[in-house]
Amino acid sequence: MNAMSVSRDPLAIAEAWKAEGRQVALATVMETWGSAPRPAGSHLVIDADGNFEGSVSGGCVEGAVIAEAGDVISEGQARMLEFGVADETAWEVGLSCGGRIRVYVERID
Question: Are the C-beta atoms of 46 and 2 separated by less than 8 Å?
C-alpha cells in the first residue's frame, strides 16, 4: 500500500511482509521536540519496493524516510535521521511549522 495509514499495526504488517519474503525496514520515532505530529514510538514500515504502512510524522518527512529506508535495506546499516526547522532540509521535508524529529531506521531480518 502506498497511502499513509496509521489504523493498521505497522509491526504486524512488517511481520506479514517478511513472511511473504519481502525485504523490510522499520522506522521508529525516537524523539520529538516542538510541534512534531507523531509521538516517540510511532512506526513506519517500508519494503524494498517503496510500499509503506504507518507514519512517523503525519506526512512531513515520510518521503525522506522512505528513501533512506531503501538504502538501509540494501546496505544493511541502520541509521538515525534527524529533521527539523533548523536543518537545511526543513523546507524540503515540510517541518517549516516548527519542531524536530529523530527517526531510527533499521532493516528487519
Answer: no
